[in-house]
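Project outcomes to date are best conveyed with an example. Our students and postdoctoral researchers have been running inverse folding experiments weekly, and each run begins with a structure described purely in tokens. The record below, which covers 444 residues, was selected by the lab manager from last quarter's runs and is presented without edits.
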């Protein structure tokens, strides 16, 4: 019995060892599972935080979307209101005002290069009278080249549009001793007129140079003349200049004439005329080219007796040619003529020849070597006939008017007749050898 009890106790020892081992394994397993559960709980907390962050971001984006949708609705409402306003203005006649009142009579362009001080004086003169009619006469300055002072001066005005002509092609004179400047000027004129007629789509353009001032009725004069240009296709252009417009040779600010000689120096032409001239524009000396009979094809030019422009440019491409004798003493009109009230139908081709012939017939013919002395002693208008160009130059020299001819035509002449005031208001008519026949008064 004692032996059996001893054996039982020996059996308890291994059982206790097994039990202890099992308990230790259970404890280790429980610890491992506890760690895993803790990790899982940490992961769950992290996921929950990330989800909440995403939910917050989505909520903010939804709020932004709502705000953008509200802004879009407001913009749509504003656009709807603006459209309604425009429609209302159109109903009240805005479109009629634009179509009938604000259509330009002509663009006015000041041709400039490198004389900033001259340009400033010209712009000031133009703006003095243009500001009240700006919608009828939009103002441009076209600069040839890149003179920084001219560019800066032009851009300092918000009342005008600046254009710049940069020509990178080399310029070569065709004859030795010619000034390159005349070639550059011709290129600039063609470029500027192409821009205004074809890019900006104007019907008429008035060309000024950067050394000119304008008269108080400059724009009214050109508006009246524009109607004549539209009606009478025998008028090639309208000028504000009279070559014999010096103070001693003018009197009547209302008097207008037709001329076979292109005056230039402040002139207006139409797009239809430019369509013809642009493709064959010359390389240089464009003004002399316009005076060739083959280019104006029997058409004539309108000019005033008293100039509507004054040229103060003593220094320029022409080196001041004729300035002291012919340009400086020019009389610029200082009277505000109401051109709208004037009947200018006498300038139409079908009436003017008869009108001018009647004036000429009333002038007393004077002849002989002392014709100029006789003219001085006659109270009314006189006419003196010249035999040829040299005879004309001799007579013109005595009076002091322009002697120059271009392509067989004296400056300012109509049918070979040059008219100017002498001891105003008396008029002197220098009559060509074939003038009376052309005017239908050969028996006068």
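After processing, the design step wrote out the following sequence:
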């Amino acid at each position: 019995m004692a032996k059996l009890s001893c054996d039982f106790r020996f059996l308890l020892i291994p059982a206790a060892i097994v039990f202890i081992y099992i308990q230790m394994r259970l404890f280790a397993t429980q610890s491992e599972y506890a760690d895993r559960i803790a990790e899982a709980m940490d992961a769950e907390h992290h996921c929950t935080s990330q989800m909440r962050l995403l939910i917050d971001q989505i909520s903010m984006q939804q709020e932004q979307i709502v705000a953008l949708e509200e802004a879009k609705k407001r913009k749509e409402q504003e656009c709807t209101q603006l459209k309604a306003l425009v429609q209302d203005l159109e109903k009240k006649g805005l479109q009629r005002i634009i179509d009938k009142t604000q259509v330009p009579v002509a663009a006015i362009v000041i041709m400039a290069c490198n004389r900033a001080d001259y340009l400033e004086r010209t712009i000031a003169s133009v703006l003095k009278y243009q500001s009240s009619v700006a919608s009828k006469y939009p103002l441009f300055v076209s600069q040839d080249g890149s003179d920084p002072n001219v560019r800066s001066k032009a851009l300092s005005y918000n009342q005008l549009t600046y254009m710049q002509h940069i020509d990178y092609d080399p310029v070569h004179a065709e004859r030795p001793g010619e000034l390159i400047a005349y070639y550059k000027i011709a290129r600039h004129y063609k470029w500027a007129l192409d821009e205004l007629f074809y890019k900006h789509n104007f019907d008429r353009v008035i060309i000024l140079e950067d050394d000119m001032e304008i008269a108080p009725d400059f724009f009214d004069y050109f508006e009246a003349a524009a109607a004549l240009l539209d009606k009478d296709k025998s008028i090639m252009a309208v000028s504000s200049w009279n070559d014999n417009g010096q103070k001693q040779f003018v009197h009547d600010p209302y008097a207008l004439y037709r001329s076979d000689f292109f005056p230039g120096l402040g002139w207006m032409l139409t797009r239809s005329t430019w369509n013809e001239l642009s493709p064959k524009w010359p390389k240089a000396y464009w003004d002399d080219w316009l005076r060739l009979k083959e280019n104006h094809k029997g058409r004539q030019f309108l000019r005033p007796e008293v100039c509507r422009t004054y040229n103060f440019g003593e220094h320029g491409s022409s080196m001041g040619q004729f300035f002291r004798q012919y340009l400086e003493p020019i009389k610029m009109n200082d009277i505000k003529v109401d051109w709208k009230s004037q009947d200018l139908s006498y300038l139409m081709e079908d009436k003017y020849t008869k009108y001018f012939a009647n004036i000429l017939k009333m002038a007393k013919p004077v002849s002989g070597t002392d014709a100029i002395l006789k003219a001085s002693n006659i109270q009314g208008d006189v006419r003196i006939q010249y035999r040829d160009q040299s005879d004309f130059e001799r007579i013109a020299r005595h009076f002091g008017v322009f002697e120059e001819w271009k392509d067989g035509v004296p400056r300012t002449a109509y049918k070979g007749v040059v008219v100017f005031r002498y001891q105003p208001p008396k008029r002197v008519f220098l009559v060509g050898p074939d003038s009376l026949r052309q005017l239908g008064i050969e028996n006068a």
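The chain has three domains: 57-102, 103-347, 351-438. The chain has a mean pLDDT of 88. The training component of this project remains on track.
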